[in-house]
Write a structure and sequence with these properties.
The structure holds 2 protein chains of 2 kinds. By secondary structure, chain A is mainly β. Chain A is built from no helices and 11 strands. Chain A is 0% helix and 56% strand. In chain B, strands 2, 4, 5, 9, 10 and 11 form a 6-stranded mixed β-sheet that branches. In chain B, strands 1-3-8-7-6 form a 5-stranded antiparallel β-sheet, with no helix packed on it.
Chain lengths: 115, 112
């Protein structure tokens, strides 16, 4: 596998379910990101991890819980979601967070539907 | 607060035309600017990254320019092809927190 991969690609869950999204990067990068893309809205940054440490939580509700066990893997744990949380969730990585090393590479996304 | 806008929101052109997509940002104090394309329901593909000290970058038929003082970037696509049809997004890195702020995108359709 190359680049940034995300699983599952599609997920349908009820409001009482608990599920997790997985992201893996094969680029040797040190920073990883979760974004939310809703219909007709710009991408919204959710979380940033740099060298496995969370450096940004962009006022995300606690029903979204990130986990970064190492620099290559990033998870987004979901519980008691709302229908308005339905969106495309995108993972990205960058070598670092300065200069040209800050170029971001994105995964294909997980299309989440909350019923 | 940094805001990024993109004009036009949608564009439809015949194959072979040269075209320009526009990106504007409200705060000129940016580090980098990156252009992406996104195919329907897919992730983002990086096209070009321009550092704040640079004025333009080129890759194949694509040329991106940056004018920090006026808060603008343009993406020029030469000899457009149907395969160029996608949504094009620009994003700037803001000094405070050093995070990306994305524009809403321009949806491009190149007709054969």
């Amino acid at each position: 596998e190359t680049g940034v991969t995300q699983t599952p690609r599609h997920l349908v869950m009820g409001m009482t379910n608990k599920k997790s999204l997985k992201c893996e990067q094969h680029l040797g990068h040190n920073a990883m990101y979760w974004y939310k893309q809703s219909a007709k809205k710009p991408l919204e940054l959710m979380f940033v991890y740099n060298f496995k440490e969370q450096t940004e939580n962009n006022s995300v509700p606690s029903r979204f819980s990130p986990e970064c066990p190492n620099s290559s893997h990033l998870f987004l744990h979901l519980h008691t979601l709302q229908p308005e949380d339905s969106a495309l969730y995108l993972c990205a990585s960058s070598q670092d967070r300065t200069g040209t090393l800050y170029e971001q590479y994105f995964g294909p996304g997980t299309r989440l539907t909350v019923t | 607060k940094q805001e990024v806008t993109q004009i036009p929101a949608a564009l439809s052109v015949p194959e072979g035309e040269n075209l320009v997509l526009n990106c504007s940002f409200t705060d000129s104090a940016i580090y980098n600017l990156q252009w992406f394309r996104q195919d329907p329901g897919k992730g983002l593909t990086s096209l070009l990254l321009i550092q704040s000290s640079q004025r333009e970058q080129t890759s194949g038929r694509l040329n991106a320019s940056l004018d920090k003082s006026s808060g603008r970037s343009t993406l020029y696509i030469a000899a457009s092809q149907p395969g160029d049809s996608a949504t094009y997004l620009c994003a700037v890195i803001v000094p405070n927190g050093q995070n990306f702020v994305f524009g809403p995108g321009t949806r491009l359709s190149v007709l054969p």
